[in-house]
Amino acid sequence: MLPLIAEPVLEPAPPRAFATAAWCLFDWAITPFPTIVSTFIISNYFAKAIAPDPTTGSAQWSFMIAVAGIVIALLSPPMGAIADRMGHAKRGIGISLTVLVLAAGLLWFAKPDPAYALPVLVVSGAGIVAMELGLLFYNALLPSIAPRERLGRISGWGWAMGYVGGLICLGAALVFLVQPEHPILGISHAEAANIRATGPLAAIWAVAFGWPLFIFVPDARKTGLKTATAVRQGLADVLHTLRDLRSTPQLAWFLIASALYRDGITTILAVGGLYAGGTFGMDFSELIIFGMSLNVTAGLGAATFAWLDDWIGSTRTIMLSIAGLIVFGLGIVIVHDKSWFFGMALSLGVFIGPTQSASRSLAVRLAPEGQVGKVFGLYALTGRAVSFIGPTLFGWVTATTHSQRAGLASILGLLLVGLIALTKVRQPGEV
After folding, report:
1. Class level of CATH domain 16-216+225-422
2. Could you report the per-residue pLDDT of 165-178, keeping only the tens digit for each?
């Protein structure tokens, strides 16, 4: 059995309030990237203006997300090993943030021409990979700023801040770029320049609001290990932990359940804008208003359920949220009126944030003492190991049936299976 290496010693921390605020603000900084690129604007721009047709574009975008998920699954274990064994999680966050910013900025060059299809898919996929790997390091910093009895609240506040950031950035995109008939800041509608500019907007936003984390959130000190040694030891430790999951059945079932329902949620978020644009014919202005409204309900849900997490427990909070996602997801598939779709989607949004934030706090609660970083590495690994299922399923069903409704309906099955698996999980102290 390999000896466990203790978590690196934390540097002297700034006042906890500043650290908490800076940690939550980072979610505000990076959430506009998936909101603008993956969900509401660039994904629809790709499907409608770059791909041959919206259905083909939806399928290609879904397959890109699936490939990005496989890359994340392969890279998460060595990245988690580096974080745990070498320290300096903020260095990993900084590198990931840099790649994300570059990817968002490069989308400015994505003109409405099929020749740009592959570059857009590659650049967008690189940004998605960078963001997810950065979140691995970011989530591992949560125990350094949150006492165990407040994990749910602070995790939920972070998600809520992210949704507010996405809301305000989408609003800025609508007011300054998408809607104006006359050019603002020299950006015209020619070759969809006003739409392409939303990528650089997300990049500027990430830089403008991401920096406080690097100043106010305590980082782990360097351990002195070389990168190759840290990766080798870390991967060996991860393999040992995977083999030993039988001795921690609650954690094992959580990893299985969360991998499935997170894949379902990630797919819904990734194709939600495509579904709204393709099935209900929403234009870019309507999509942005839809995205802003969805961020409001998602943010309210994350903030409200954050208290519920600490009150009734993370497991019950997740189960309640997944049930809400399934119910309103079925409603979205069934309705044909745009107003009904809008209402169902906003109701569904209430349950997205709580599922994600409560999962993060439950991972901390289930982690063995001194192994939070490793658990988040496994959390990322197991989640991304199956992350190709949802996008591939949506893309295949959509392409086969020529119906986005059928594609979305297929994703609800992942949520249901994840919910069933979660019934076997009890957090410490829960009956």
Report:
1. mainly alpha
2. 988 998 899 888 98
